[in-house]
Amino acid sequence: MIVLEAAGIAHARALLITVPAFPEVRAIVRMARGRRDDLPIVARADGPEAVKALYALGIEDVTSPELEAAIEITRQALIHFDVPAQEILEVAGPIRRQQYGTTRDSSRAT
């Protein structure tokens, strides 16, 4: 809690959690929610099970570095094949929705 207070959680507009281990993320979320129930939280998830578990904690946005790296590599390859940007978004969006299990806006995580 000391770190959250030192970071200014009382006035924060959002909390970004980049720690990869789920138990630590869960503890941070609980402490943050205890202080600021209204604070939007974005967290890192390692794997599909962690994505589900983090959403179950009430986290607004979850991102998987491995998935995002795969999407970015694919995006770069498609650019080299002269695929228009809109078509690339149309590919990335459904992949994210399927993997994250949400209707998450595909343009937000690119």
How would you characterize this protein structure?
This protein is mainly alpha-helical and 110 residues long. The protein is built from 5 helices and 3 strands; from the N terminus they run αβαβαβαα. It has a 3-stranded parallel sheet with strand order 1-2-3. The radius of gyration is 16 Å and the shape is elongated. The two termini are 31 Å apart.
Features:
3 strands, Rossmann fold, 2 domains, mainly alpha, 55% helix, 5 helices, disordered C terminus, 3-stranded parallel sheet, 110 residues
Whole-angstrom Rg: 16 Å
Largest sheet: 3 strands, parallel
* CATH level-four homologous superfamily name of the largest domain: NAD(P)-binding Rossmann-like Domain
CATH C-level name of the largest domain: Alpha Beta
Choose one word for the global shape.
Answer: elongated
Distance between the termini: 31 Å
Regions with pLDDT < 50 over 5+ consecutive residues?
104-110
Number of strands: 3
Write the layout of secondary structure elements.
Blueprint lengths: L1 H5 L8 E3 L4 H14 L5 E4 L3 H9 L4 E3 L1 H16 L4 H16 L10
Parallel strand pairs: 1-2, 2-3
In short:
This protein is mainly α and 110 residues long. Helices cover 55% and strands 9% of the residues. The chain has five helices and three strands.
